[in-house]
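Researcher: Sequence recovery benchmark, item below. Answer with residues only.
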């Protein structure tokens, strides 16, 4: 008999624990909320803040992209956009050439800026303009110009590896600028006008739209 009472008491105490069970057998806390629900300990607020922060970051990135590509798009047709980008890249080169070895941080920042500008620009040409050249039976120039883009990447790599305080850094930058300018002049004076002259207004508008779309993705 004493043993039976002890077991009953123990079972009763277990049944009076702070967490009870609902009719469907799922555990609930003493305040009636599910044990798996978000409490008032700030977890939900932290998640909301994280989501809000991510949304702001995405919005800021989109705003930056609209601004970056908008600057080029305002130039006009696809060829005007690409010519404007040539000019912007050459302006960065000139800023690099105006530095001295004591400005290694500035040189590094300008090199990164140049790399981003050229990467965006070459992507537009390789994915839109050069394919249009090949469709217009100008495969030779398309292949030649796209091949020169490989040297752009080589120069960027060499400048990054040699360090911005290297004694021959400016010499390499000047050599790089000369190659880019020659490439740009061929496009602006020969290739782009010839390609555009063979386009209808509809085709011209399509290439312009595609260049801006690609530029936005890479901005």
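Model:
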């Amino acid at each position: 008999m004493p043993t039976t009472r002890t077991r009953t008491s123990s079972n009763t105490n277990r049944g009076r624990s702070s967490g009870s069970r609902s009719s469907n057998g799922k555990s609930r806390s003493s305040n009636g909320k599910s044990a798996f629900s978000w409490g008032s300990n700030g977890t939900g607020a932290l998640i909301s803040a994280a989501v809000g922060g991510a949304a702001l970051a995405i919005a800021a990135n989109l705003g930056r992209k609209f601004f970056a590509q908008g600057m080029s798009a305002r130039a006009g047709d696809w060829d005007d956009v690409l010519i404007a980008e040539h000019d912007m890249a050459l302006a960065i080169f000139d800023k690099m050439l105006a530095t001295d070895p004591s400005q290694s941080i500035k040189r590094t920042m300008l090199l990164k800026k140049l790399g981003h500008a050229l990467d965006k620009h070459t992507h537009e040409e390789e994915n839109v303009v050069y394919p249009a050249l090949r469709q217009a039976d100008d495969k030779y120039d398309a292949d030649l110009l796209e091949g020169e883009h490989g040297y752009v990447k080589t120069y960027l790599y060499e400048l990054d590896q040699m360090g911005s305080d290297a004694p021959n850094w400016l010499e390499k930058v000047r050599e790089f600028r000369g190659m880019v300018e020659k490439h740009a002049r061929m496009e602006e004076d020969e290739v782009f006008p010839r390609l555009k002259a063979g386009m209808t207004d509809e085709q011209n508008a399509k290439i312009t739209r595609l260049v801006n779309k690609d530029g936005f993705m890479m901005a």
